[in-house]
Write a structure and sequence with these properties.
The protein has one domain. Helix content is 31%, strand content 29%. The chain has four helices and six strands; from the N terminus they run βααββαβββα. A hairpin with a 4-residue loop joins strand 2 and strand 3.
Length: 144
């Protein structure tokens, strides 16, 4: 049996104490503790029925004012929407980008790859390595 991992490590700028406090509050919410927490998290985009926040780790780095997110289980549904809400509220002209590496404990075809994510106040864009390869084949008319 093989184990699959979605590994990532990236930082998010923290432009103010208000931004830090807001993100720490959201990341600390447990939908089972308070029904209002569930409503807030659902409104952001999380599927609270399956949510375990955080299923990854984060640290607030006081030097440089950043959040450092990292983990090896991938990111949960709704995380990009949370980051987009953060950008809209605290960095309206800014952006956040990160990548996730999909790896496997055994060398199996189709079990490796990744995804790039780019978030602005207006949009969340994703591109997997498979999408990029497919686009390159179309452009070059290459072998499938």
């Amino acid at each position: 049996m093989a184990n699959n991992y979605g590994q990532f490590s990236f930082t998010v700028p923290c432009p103010s104490t208000e931004a830090k406090d807001w993100l720490v509050k959201i990341l600390g919410m447990d939908p089972e503790d308070d029904p209002e927490n569930a409503l807030i998290l659902e409104e952001i985009g999380f599927d609270v029925e399956y949510l375990s926040l955080p299923s990854w780790e984060y640290h607030v780095e006081p030097e440089g004012g950043v959040f450092w997110f990292h983990g090896d289980e991938g990111v949960v549904d709704g995380f990009d929407e949370l980051l987009q809400r953060y950008v809209r509220m605290f960095m309206p002209n800014g952006s956040i980008g990160y990548g996730v590496a999909w790896t496997c404990s055994k060398p199996r075809v189709g079990e490796f790859g990744g995804v790039a994510v780019f978030i602005t106040a207006q949009a969340v864009r994703h591109m997997s390595t498979d999408q990029w390869i497919t686009e390159q084949r179309k452009v070059r008319g290459g072998v499938k």
